[in-house]
Specification:
The protein is of the alpha+beta class. Helix content is 53%, strand content 19%. The chain contains 4 helices and 5 strands. It has a 5-stranded antiparallel sheet. A hairpin with a 3-residue loop joins strand 2 and strand 3.
């Protein structure tokens, strides 16, 4: 009985480790395939969270347009995912719209309450709680909106 316990213990410990390594290799291969399949015109997200459109690429680097006439160069490995475009983006936006509206309501109430009772001086100091716009972190702002806000300030 004792002779069977040690091999059984090894099997119980090694099988999950082996399966975990296989899963990691599969995920790494999927990411590598995605990074290799990026083409000019794709909208991508970098590992640092920057959104951009691919304007040029070579074997190791990708040039991303992050604003009108602003192009930066990134390693291909910095591309986290390719954002959907067209009809796929519309359906993804519809799915996430309900989630974002809930987040906006919660975030707006929290910031609004903090700005009125003075517990969050930074929100009132930078004008995010007083300019009438939704103070939601993570919401994208267009280039035109940013320029208009900067002119107003």
């Amino acid at each position: 009985m004792a002779n069977l316990l040690f091999p059984l213990l090894l099997v119980v410990l090694l099988v999950p480790m082996f399966l975990g390594v296989r899963r990691q290799k599969r995920e790494a291969q999927k990411v590598a395939d995605m990074q290799e399949s990026v083409k000019v015109g794709d909208q991508v997200t970098t590992t640092s969270g920057l959104y951009g459109t691919v304007v040029d690429l070579d074997e190791e680097t990708i040039d991303l347009e992050i604003a009108e006439d602003v192009v930066t160069t990134w390693l291909r490995a910095a591309i986290r995912d390719v954002r959907p475009t067209g009809d796929a983006a519309d359906s993804a936006e519809a799915d996430s719209a309900a989630d974002e509206s809930d987040d906006e309501a919660i975030a707006g109430t929290a910031v609004e309450g903090a700005a009125t009772n003075g517990t969050n001086g930074s929100a009132a100091a930078n004008g995010s709680a007083t300019n009438g716009s939704s103070p939601v972190s993570g919401a994208e702002e267009s280039v035109e909106d940013t320029a208009a806000r900067l002119r107003k300030d």
